[in-house]
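QA checklist item 7 of 12: single-chain prediction sanity check.
[x] sequence parsed
[x] length recorded as 478
[x] structure emitted
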Amino acid sequence: MKQIKRTRPKTGLLFIGAKRFRQLGEGTADGTYEVRKKTEYKTYLDAFGKFTDTVSCGMCYDREDAERAIELFTAEKVDCVCAIFMSWAEDFAWIRFLRELPPMPLLFASVVRDELFITDTNDENQFVEFLSAGALVGAQEGSGSFRRFARPMSDICIGTLDEVSAKLKIFSEAARVRTILRRGNVSLLACYNEAMWATYVDPYNMFMKIGPELHFLSIAQLMTEVDNTPDSLVDELVSSMTSRYRIMPNVDFEKLRASVRASYAMERIALAADADLLVLNDIDTELFRNIGLRPGFIPTTPDLDLVTVPEGDLGGGLATFILQMLAGVPANFIEPFYIDHKRGTFAGGHAGPNNYSACPENVVIARDERFAKTAWKYAGAPFAWYVFPEGTKTMLHMSELNGRMKMICTLVDALPTKHYLASYSHADFKPHEDISPEELFSRILPHGVTQHYGIVDGDWTPQLEALAKQCDFEFARV
C-alpha cells in the first residue's frame, strides 16, 4: 500500500529543441538559442514542480536524447509524460520518441509566451529570439506525427504557462491514480452479492483494463483472525472509540466489543492480502451465521489507508477508492434513498461500514437497527453512525457495460443534517447546479447505473474525465 501514500504524481518532461539552432546567437545580449532554451526549461520545471515530481534529462535535440529520455522515464516509473516543442525542431527525435515510448499517458503541450519583445529581426539578437519564440511552429509540425501514431491515453493542449500547468496538473493527477490502480489489489469478502446481479464485474476485465488484481477472502479466514485477536487489543480499541465518539444509550457493550473485534480482524486479513480496497458482502448469510454481525468500525484507526465498502459492489468500491486517491481525504459510499420534492433535496447514505474518520464530531456509536430483531448471535451490534460533513461533493458511479467500465459523475452539496436515519450513515443532498433532484436523476438514469456511488469533498470531475480517457472508460458528467 505504499503507493497510496504518495500524494504527488510523477511526470516525465520532454523538451524538444532544434539542433541546428543551438549555437545561433553566440555573443548576443541574450546568448545563444541553447542558453535561452535552458532558461525557459528551468522556468517550466519550476512551474510544473509545484504540483508534480518532475523527471527530465534536459533538452532533447537528437535521437540519442530521445532514447535517453525514454530510458529515464521507464526507470523512474513515471505516471505520465508531457512533451513540449520549444520552437520549430527537426522531428526525427520526436517521431522516434512516439514510436519507442512504452504505453503510458502522454500530454502533447505547447506553451504560449505571456508577452513578446520582437521588433526588428535585422538585429541578430532579435532574430534568434524570433526563432526561439516559434513554439507554435513546432507544435503544428509535431501534431502531425502525434495524430498519425494515435497513441492511446494521449491528450493535447495549447496555452500560457499557467494554462498548460493547470491542464498538466489534472492530467498527471489522473495518471497517478491510473498507476495506483494498475499496482493495486482488491479483496472481496467473501463473494458477490447474489441479491444484486447488476453490481457484478468481470475480474479478468478489471485486471486487464483497469489494473487491480482481485483476491477472494473467506469467512473461515475472518473467523480465525477473530479468534486470534487478543482481548486486551479489543479493550484498547473500544476505549479509544468511546472516548472520541458519542454513544447511544441502547448500545450493548458486549456487542460493541464483538463488532470492534470483527472489524479489526477484517482489516488484518485484508492487509495480509496486501489489499488497497476491501469489498465486503455485508448481507451474506454466512457472515451472520459464523461471525454473528456485520463489522461496523472500519477503519479501527483513523490513519488506515484501506478503503472498505459494503454490499459486495466492486464498481462502487472502485468509485470510492478512486475518489479517495484523488482527494487524499476519506471518501464515502452512498446510495440515494428518496427525493424530498418539497425541499428540493434527496437523502443518501448507507448502512454498514463507512469511513467516519474525517469528522469525529459527526459520529455516534449506534445500534444496527436493521438487524436488531434478528436471531443472529450479535443482532443489532453497533457501528459508527455517521453524518457526512456539509459541503460540495463529487458523486461518482462506476459499473460495467459490455466489458467496458463506465463513470457517471456529478456535483452535489451535502447540507447540514442531523442524525435522523437511524443507524444509516447519511446526509441530505441537493444538486450543485440549480436543478431539481428529479432533473438530476432523469439525466443519470438513461446512462444505466446501480444505486451505489462514492462521494468525496471537492470537485474532481476534470480529473475523472482525464482518468476515463486514459483508461478507456465510458464517461459522462451530468
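[x] summary fact logged: The CA atoms of residues 371 and 380 lie 5 Å apart.
[ ] second reviewer sign-off
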